[in-house]
Amino acid sequence: MADRVTTSTARFGLTDPRAEAELRAAGLWDDRGPVAEHEPILSALSRSPDPDLALRGLARLREADEPGWPELRAALVADRRLRGRLAAVLGGSSPLGDFLAARPEEWRRLHGPGTPPARYTDELLAAVRAAGGGEQGPVAELRGTEAVKALKSGYRGLLLELAADDLAHVVERELPALDYEVVADRLSDLAEAALRAALAVAWAENGGAPAQDGCRLAVIAMGKCGGHELNYVSDVDVIFVGEGDTGLATRVGSAMMRVATEACFEVDANLRPEGRNGALVRTLDGHLTYYKRWARTWEFQALLKARAIAGDPELGRGYTDAVAPLVWTAADRDNFVVDVQAMRRRVEDHVPSELVERELKLGRGGLRDIEFAVQLLQLVHGRGDETLRIGSTVDALAALAAGGYVARADAVELAESYRFLRTLEHRLQLQRLRRTHLFPADEDTDDIRWLARATGIGAEGGKSEAQVLHAEFRRRANRIRRLHEKLFYRPLLEAVSRVPTGALRLTAQAAQARLAALGYTSPQGALQHIQALTSGVSRRASIQTALLPVLLDLLGGTADPDGGLLAYRKVSEALAATPWYLRVLRDEGAVAERLAFLLGTSRLVPDLVVRAPEVLRLLADPKELTLRDPEEVAASLRNVVRRHGYLGNAVIAARSLRRHELARVACADLLGFMDVLAVCSALSSVWSAVLEAALHAVDRAEAASAGGHLARISVIGMGRLGGAELGYGSDADVLFVCEAAEGVSDTDALKYASRVATAVRRLLGSPSQDPPLQVDVDLRPEGRQGPIVRTLESYRAYYAQWSEVWESQALLRARPVAGDADLGARFIAMVDPVRYPEGGLTDDEVREIRRIKARVDTERLPRGADPTTHTKLGRGGLADVEWTLQLLQLRHAHEHPALRTTSTMAGLAAAVDAGLITAAESAELTGSWLLATRVRNAITLVRGKPTDQLPTQGRELAGVVAALGSTVPGDLDDPGEFLDHYRRTTRRAHSVIEHVFYDD
User: Which segments carry the region annotation Adenylyl transferase (predicted)?
Assistant: First the structure.
């Protein structure tokens, strides 16, 4: 019989061996099993968080009021709402079950409509008055232990109603579920009512009524109560403000804390000035004096949720109105953001390591992660945006999202996770009405199962409810932590906090004055840009409004603030339809800072970024910006081009990838993440990849019309391309060499290759919005008069019979860069004897090179150019150093193989090893070449177009110095001093060149 009974009761989730006996005593069970009439009660018990606990609670309720049991049983059968509320409370909270057992008549609270929050205070005061002698008894009767007991009973009764509303849907799914916000709001209202009742008792115990003898006292709620987001079991943080007889006010405040603590919850006043060592009650002036002179950062953070809830309403409003300006300017304090971040780390460090993953409140991915992030964002941005001045965390998240300070998806995720964790916290606290924030340990599966049932989480996908809850808890915690670190440690926050509060809300006239002070030469024009960016009520305008105060400061520190702001407007308008653009600037503070520097320094970068916006994402990570393998770039280009059957589209694709790479390299260069040799190598690699891709596309198209590939073609890089030393504005000097395919005549092969080479030059050089792609073939045999393409044997014959010394010099930097690799290698092997002549140069050939160099110096330098600041042809410039090295190579490479290099830097090092120049001379030449190269690149970046002349004054010179950044010695960041440094460096190099190049 026992086995049959156990099996039957287990059907209702009851495992206690006493279950059947208790059910029989209640009249819910007979010899045939559950009484059909009463089975709805058993079904409700089975769905409660703990059916055994719920049944024991029901049995105790029956035993406490045996005569009233039939009425309750009948009501439970007839009323689904009562059934769900009572079963949920009894199975979800042992103390509330104890309360019902002690006061069985209180079950009627769950049967009626319930007490509206607006009547909480009246009901508690009525309960206390009744205990003191009657509903209309004098105030003096609101005192003593009976008053405390009455307040405790009234508070627990209202808590019972709220818990029943909160849990009922777990048992009866048809009943409405209360949102977390509703529960927290009602708990806060209940706490306020309890404090008001406790304050009334305190006044009575101290011999009078509020405001007697001019004594006034206001109670200010802080923390969760102040923010309308209280827990079931939580300290209620308060601050007292008094006027008049502060001694009496202190006695009343102390009595209020004692009464409320004994009856309802712990009342904590340690957030007052000076903490537990400070006076319990201070005057309003005393509070303000403290906050203005002594308060620490965390105290203003705590005041964010301050709200007057009891006592003198006028005094309470006076307090909140007076401290609000201090709260919303706290972010102006030095190291404000750093202090708040440090406070969060200290809080987390105090959590025992074995509990940090289980702490719902203080641990990693817990409630404090969300609250600290939200409060920091509020305090920083709320200085200028009053919509953020909200106490509730969930409401503040919504306001932050509406204002564009947080991504909508992030705000939704954080709000949902906050509600989830707070709901778990509420259930855990209700279980025993104890303050706890610990998720059950992994091994406590029964506790996790109870928590899942109490939260309304069921089994799914083959997983038990405990497994589902555990997985969801871990997922939420990990997501919260990631978003916390993203928002809380956002570099932009610190930048925003450095903008004075007054600068966030300026009149037009004041704004112009501030812009002028920041360095804008046209404040009125800057205001027009700001208005264009922030006008309207769109989310984009809201985010711009939040970003611009910081960006204006950042741009103000660049060489050209006006140009930078104009560029920012152009970029923003061009990328208006790009959904992630403003989000990246807002969420990745490093991106905003770096973009401001780029836009205020370079005219080239904004144009590139508009057409290659994806580079902006790379600004967040220097590694992503710099560490890209040239082979990977080339492979990407080839793959992109191959996907396009139409030749024009293939070349457009090649241009697009080149634009992206050019923007990437330019940003990395300006930000100091790539040195000059890496920049030159990357630019050369991109050029080679573009040539390779374009040649492949054209060759494929030409072969399709010609019936096959009639020739193998190789592109030989010359000049800076061959030396892998291209700058931003360099042309690509090349030679085209071909070889007839098997069975094809040289004539047909040359015609085919010429069509391919001409098409490559035309397509790459056609006008576009991108920097030009000029393929220069003027270094070919016979110069502009010679054919664009020759066969390998034609080159061999020409160089053997007609080659001049300058052509040998040009071939020193020859290197295959695209096309048929084997043909390119054979071309290099063929020209090696020409460029590294056996026996070196004759005296006549040396004189010829010197004559040509002298002619270049006098004829090719642009009219009016300053030879001391022309980076290419000026004294000690690029041409000076390169011609000097090339003369050494032509004369000595036959006997010193290390000189056989296309690299200027490697050649100078080899010349030292060969004893042709001293280490000191090499250092002067190397320093001058590197400086001239850096300056030449910087000029192009700053001006937006290629030029070799270093500016000697004004914003452009300042821009060049800023663009050089970390490559400029620290004491030369003044433009005038840098100009002197450049001239001094090139002058010393020119002195070495005069000696090495012209002296035998």
Answer: 500-1000
Q: Give 298-307 pLDDT, tens digit per residue.
A: 899 999 999 9
The pLDDT score that the predictor gives to residue 152 is 95
Residue 200 pLDDT class (50, 70, 90 cuts): very high
What is the rounded CA–CA span in Å between residue 121 and residue 38?
A: 38
Q: Is the pLDDT of residue 136 over 80?
A: no
Q: Which residues of 852-865 are buried (b: 16+ CB within 10 A; e: fewer)?
A: ebeeebeeebeeee
Q: Going from the N-terminus, what domains does the chain have, and what CATH number goes with each?
A: 2-213+246-266 (no CATH), 336-492 (1.20.120.330), 843-998 (1.20.120.330)
How buried is 438 (Cβ within 10 angstroms: 0-12 exposed, 13-18 middle, 19+ buried)?
middle
- pLDDT band for 494, please (50, 70, 90 cuts): low
CA atoms within 13 A on the CB side of 341: 16
- At residue 218, what are phi and psi to the nearest 5 degrees? -120, 145
pLDDT band of residue 970 (cuts 50, 70, 90) is low
Residue 495 near residue 590 (C-beta atoms within 8 A)? no
User: 3-class SS at 781?
Assistant: coil
Give the C-alpha separation, 816 to 806, whole Å.
20
Query: How buried is 158 (Cβ within 10 angstroms: 0-12 exposed, 13-18 middle, 19+ buried)?
Result: buried
For residue 302, the model assigns a pLDDT of 92
Q: How many CA atoms are closer than 13 Å to the CA of 166, on its beta-carbon side?
A: 30
pLDDT at site 858: 82
Task: Give dist(CA 782, CA 480) in Å, integer.
Answer: 70
Gap between the Cα atoms of 855 and 877, Å rounded: 16
More confident residue, 28 or 553: 28
* Closest residue by Cα to residue 330 from 369, 307, 304, 308: 304
Q: What angle do CA 532, 533, 539 make, to 5 degrees?
A: 125
CB atoms closer than 10 angstroms to residue 267: 22
Q: What is the DSSP letter of 970?
A: G
Looking at every residue in the chain, the average pLDDT score rounds to 89
State mean pLDDT over 157-170.
97
Three state DSSP letters for 838-863: CCCCCHHHHHHHHHHHHHHHHHCCCC
**Which among 371, 428, 368 is positioned nearest to 400, based on CA atoms?**
371
CB-based burial, 621-642: b 16+ in 10 Å, e otherwise: ebeebbebebeebbebbbebbe
